[in-house]
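Working notes for the structural subgroup meeting. M.R. asked for a predicted model of this chain before we commit to crystallization trials. I am recording the input and output together here so anyone reviewing the notebook later can reproduce the run.

Input as submitted:
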Amino acid sequence: MFDPVSAAPVAKRVLPYVAAILVGGTAIGYGVHEHNGSQRLAAQNAQVTAQLNATQGALTTTQSQLDALSNKVNEIEASAQAKAAQSAVASRSATVRRSATFDSRFRKLQTQLDAQGKAIDQARNDLNSTQTDLSNTRTELTGSIARTHDELVVLEKKGELNYFEFDLTKSKEFKREGPLSISLRKANSKHGYADLMLIVDDRNLSQKHVNLYQPAMFYEPDSPKPVEVVINDISKDHIHGYVSAPKYHQSELAALSNNSSSTQTSNQAGATQTSGDGDIVTSQPAQRQKLPTPTPNDPNIPNQQ
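Returned structure, recorded in token form:
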């Protein structure tokens, strides 16, 4: 049977050892725990260090790649700039060459155009001079040109031609004026000319670009002089002028000339007579009869309209 009293001294002696054992075991356990913790930390540090080293290596590699890529980009940009500069220089050179070529061609073309313009102006001057000379020649050969109604009256008083004054408006209809019919198709007041359609001896004639005061002439059969159409005023879609025609045909003038010659011969034959004594007596010739001047409405003269 257990005796608490006797056991107490034993317990007191054993208790310190137990405590020491407990303390030692705790210390040993803590030491073991600390040792294990240190090993784990060392392993973790080694692992982290390895990861850092790997990351640093990767970063170094990436940086090298970036540096290489940057260098390549710089090279490409430099090459592109150099090519762009060369292209710009080449483009400017080509532009300069094209400009020089264009200027040369333009100057050559301009010189040709100037020469052609001078030739055209000279041709126009020659044409105007020729037209003026022709008009003057026609005037000298056929008579004067009436620029107004009063001048036309003066020409009528000369008695050489018949004059038919007209006013025409643009139309396809024909208007009878003396020996012909006229239709005004165009009147250009700015440049002073007109386009006409005529009916002469039952024939349709187109007379374009009849200038102001420039007679258009037509010869009729058996006519000693031409029929003339003269325009002396041009306005919008309207012209004023006249037609001049010989009063006599060639056959009528020949007949009048023959009658005059026959009368003169007869008078000359009767001027010398012989007297009864054989003397030659010269008598006064018979008075030559003066033929009446036909009028425009004389029924004895044909084709008077």
